[in-house]
Recover the amino acids of this structure.
């Protein structure tokens, strides 16, 4: 069997603290068959059980750097969805 | 390493940045409080996105050292902390006090805004609660609105950081 005609884009998504509690996991792989952004990944998360409780625009980091929701994803990226920070 | 599971040694951090030329040393210690919102707190449990903590703390330290004539030492502790334990220590050493104070303030404020660390409060009545901007996203409080305050701050954070880097 030949593979899918459309190349897929796979990213690793990390959840922390209250968000991990609410969705019930702290890591998930998401695949897209077309170019995708941070917002697209968040939409996928919202479709999961508990995901509707994510805020409209949570703080996100891509490969250890804060990013905007419209940032384009690349294969192998690590996307972190960050609950309100509480360091200090 | 900016993160540690061990008690933070203030004297060692001061010694790491103090020098014959840097006569002004400002320190900030953030320690665990025994109350929040009128309730008695027994301890705090800190967790972190460790690789990003290291990256973001390195960026903040570099920003401060580029902006002022200072040397910065910074540590944040994670795990279970008891009342009075130091969770974070910032030390800024400079030739003069003014730069030491302003750089120390900059580092702690940026850490609180940008560094991915979270904490859960364990209360005397046995309940546990994640600490958020307004405490709106709390385990066990189903039906309350999502934390839109935090959501609104994210794009502003990125925008401001980009503007400052230019």
């Amino acid at each position: 069997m030949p593979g899918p005609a459309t190349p897929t884009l796979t990213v690793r998504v990390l959840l922390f603290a209250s968000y991990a509690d609410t969705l019930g996991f702290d890591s998930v792989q998401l695949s897209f068959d077309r170019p995708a952004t941070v917002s697209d990944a968040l939409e996928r998360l919202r479709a999961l059980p508990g995901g509707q409780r994510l805020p409209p625009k949570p703080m996100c980091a891509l490969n250890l750097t804060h990013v905007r929701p419209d940032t384009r994803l690349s294969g192998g990226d690590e996307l972190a969805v960050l609950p309100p920070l509480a360091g200090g | 390493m900016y993160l540690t599971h061990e008690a933070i040694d203030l004297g060692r951090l001061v010694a790491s940045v103090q020098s014959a030329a840097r006569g002004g040393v400002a320190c900030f210690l953030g320690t665990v409080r025994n109350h929040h919102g009128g309730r008695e707190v027994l301890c705090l449990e800190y967790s972190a996105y460790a690789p990003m903590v290291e990256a973001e703390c390195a960026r903040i330290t570099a920003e401060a050292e580029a902006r002022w004539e200072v040397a910065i030492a910074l540590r944040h502790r994670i795990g279970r902390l008891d009342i009075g334990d130091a969770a974070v220590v910032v030390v800024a050493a400079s030739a003069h006090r003014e730069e030491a104070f302003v750089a120390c303030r900059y580092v702690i404020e940026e850490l609180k805004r940008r560094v991915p660390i979270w904490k859960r409060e364990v209360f005397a009545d046995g309940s546990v609660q994640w600490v958020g901007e307004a405490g709106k996203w709390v385990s066990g409080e189903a039906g309350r609105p999502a934390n839109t305050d935090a959501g609104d701050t994210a794009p502003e954070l990125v925008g401001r950081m980009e503007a400052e880097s230019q």
Observations:
- Helices of chain B lie at 10-17, 50-67, 97-114, 148-165.
- The interface with chain A takes residues 30, 46-49, 51-52, 55-56, 76, 87-88, 108, 111-120, 130-133, 137-139, 146-155, 157-159, 161 of chain B (CB under 8 Å).
- The radius of gyration of chain B is 17 Å.
